[in-house]
Amino acid sequence: MKCEEARLLLDPYTDDELPATERTALHDHIESCAECGPEAEALERLRADIRQSVPMYRAPESLRSQIRSDLRRAAGGASAMARAPGWLAYAASILLAVAVGSGGTFLLTGQRQENAIGDELIDSHLRSLLADHLTDVASSDKHTVKPWFAGRTEVSPPGVDLAAQGFPLVGGRLDLIQGRPVPALVYRAGKHIINVFVLPGRPNELSEAVTRRGYTLRHWSGGDLGYWAVSDASADEFSKFEQAFRKATGG
Fold it and tell me: How far apart are CA 114 and CA 79, in angstroms?
């Protein structure tokens, strides 16, 4: 088995979703591969951290009822949904099944989605400090950190070193945000850690800095990427970091 094929199977392997034959072949590859082995271990640690740190909640009946009502209203009412083209009715039924059938998942739009992303990123920042999982690749060399993410995520982080500006690169790691692997670049600002999460950019995203639970979340866009930085550094220091990062990446 080649690394390219193995990386596509790491997520279902970690979730124990592979058939026995594929699982055995991938296990043998992981045991002997210097690249895929550490990546599989990083995914195992990440899932273990999430299971231990993130509480599970069942959506209340009031929320489930609200979702049903919103879906009907978006489709023009129950009768309109019945008369809608096949693809619309099918899409609505899928959304309803996901939102209500799971009991613990609900649809997020607009500001609520931004809030959900922000909460996940701050939680991830806290886990990286508390669970001894700050980096998967520990290096201040951008030529080591940036290539490490190749093939592991859907985006390619810039991995710039800002040591000359007072913010040295510590390394990088993979985190699971909204169910997908997301690269996190780790910087140090004096005694403080700054995690920069790199996601595909979307229009009309949160642009101002917000503070939650004592941690500040800053967001900016650069090209087709969205950068979300979390830290408890001072406002002045954090602002200087953002300016240095944006200048170095042309954002």
Answer: 32
